[in-house]
Amino acid sequence: MEVTIAEKKPRAAGDGGGLVERLPEALLVEVLARVDVDGACSAAASCRSLYAAANAVLPALTSIDLSAFAPSNAILSRILAGNGAVRSLTVNCSLLDDSAASVIARGSLRDLSLLKCSFSMSFFVALGGACHDLRSLKLEMAVCPYTLYPCLAPVYVGCVHLELQGWITSHS
């Protein structure tokens, strides 16, 4: 992944900024581009300079794995905001509702893994309507998958390149 940003001069030592704020923004972007999404988000919370660097990195990621934590709709929206490049997305959906479809369903997706999900038909209608080039869909269900099969019809119709579907039933 290549992220470009205008070169920024380091601050002078006497201007009151912390050590991180004295580093060039291009260096911070390069560092955050090499860590996972959790690391970039954690770093962004620590200071304004890292927040700005994370905002430059997140929209350029092509593969995002959010399986380690369950984001809310708002957090997922912030992570994926402005990202038109993501091709592979894994999300722990246990805190998400059907409105997350507007954030998850994007034309650039090729591989999608939804863990601990219990979405209704409207979510899959949105997915089928936006993800025309989706090649792989993996679902870990928080509900019985047999009740979900009718909901998947819009995905089959809209995602004409779908090659692989996987269902895993969660017993939680």
From TrEMBL:
Cited SUPFAM superfamilies: F-box domain, RNI-like
Pfam family, one: DUF7885
Chain ranges of the F-box/LRR-repeat protein 15-like leucin rich repeat domain: 64-143
InterPro entries: F-box-like_dom_sf, FBXL15_LRR, LRR_dom_sf
Protein name per its UniProtKB record: F-box/LRR-repeat protein 15-like leucin rich repeat domain-containing protein
Organism: Zea mays (Maize)
